[in-house]
Design a protein that fits this description.
By secondary structure, the chain is an all-alpha fold. The chain is built from four helices and no strands. The chain has one domain. Helix 1 crosses helix 3 and helix 3 runs antiparallel to helix 4.
Length: about 110
């Protein structure tokens, strides 16, 4: 159950970080409402809180989250921006997912 909970926190953090950054992007780069920028800023603040629910240490969580961010960003671009990942996007995503599994969940003595 701890594994599922940890994965949930990675996905939730990704939604808040990527979503928050996306809203700021829309505001500044696409000329959308300042309210989207403010919502994005709030989401980024909440993103900063979510990783604290992980049970591992800061360095391990943030190193593993870097991989989750890569994979989730590819999915965000596909589902939200309509940019279909190519084989190298998929390969890179699987490589970083493997890294997440090693960093966070490998047995330690």
């Amino acid at each position: 159950m701890a594994f599922i909970t940890s994965l949930f926190y990675f996905i939730l953090a990704g939604i808040f970080e990527i979503g928050g950054g996306y809203f700021v992007w829309l505001w500044l780069k696409e000329g959308q409402s300042v309210w989207l920028g403010l919502l994005g800023g709030l989401m980024l603040f909440i993103y900063g809180i979510i990783p604290t629910f992980q049970t591992a240490n800061f360095g391990r969580v943030y190193a593993a989250y870097g991989g989750a961010f890569v994979a989730l960003s590819i999915l965000w671009g596909w589902q939200i921006d309509g940019v279909k990942p190519d084989r190298f996007d998929w390969l890179g995503s699987w490589i970083v997912i493997l890294g997440i599994l090693v960093i966070m969940y490998a047995p330690r003595s």
